[in-house]
Amino acid sequence: MGLTAKPGDEQIVSHRRQPPASMLTREEHLKRSKEAALALLNAGRMREAVSSMMTDIVKSPSSAMPREIHAFGISAAAAGDTTAVREYIEGFI
Rounded to an integer, what distance in angstroms lies between the CA atom of residue 34 and that of residue 40? Predict the structure, then answer.
């Protein structure tokens, strides 16, 4: 039994089997994280988008960066600034 997307369901993320995050390269993990966070943002779920990105970045052992960077995403979401949240998500390299 599969999921069928209907018009307006752009936020549905594929449920196909994908390798676990621990088996992905840093670039693949980052790409997957950004896609999930942007899908949430595009669905109007700004705070969840930031939360998704934060948790994905923190749990990746290859993403050594100051955790304070997440204050930007949190502040942008709290202010309702969609553009800044998008910049936060897309800014990870």
Answer: 10
